[in-house]
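note to self — DONT lose this again. spent like an hour looking for the file last time. sequence + predicted structure for the chain T wanted, 108 res
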Amino acid sequence: MIYSKEFVVDLAPSEMLEIELQKAEDKLTEIKTTQYFKMELEILNSQMNKIKEWQFLRSDSDKERQINEQEKKIYDIVIRASNEKASQSSKQQSIINIIKSKIQKSEY
């Protein structure tokens, strides 16, 4: 049942499931477009820019080592973000599949 200031609408169970399905699909779209760990990645990239700047009394080997360490941190965050996105997408797709199954069962 949907309540509004003007009227009350009684929806059929299948209509309610369709609304639920649309919300679940919208959430999946949101998950797919979200950049996970965005702030952490921005911080690491900012730190990388500082590392790449010329610094007095720092050897080239130290600079290369720092760059390599920072690249590893960035890579690790990118992998974590990718894994989190895949995990969230999978969970949401399962929810969508359950709702679709309920819709099919309600049509028979």
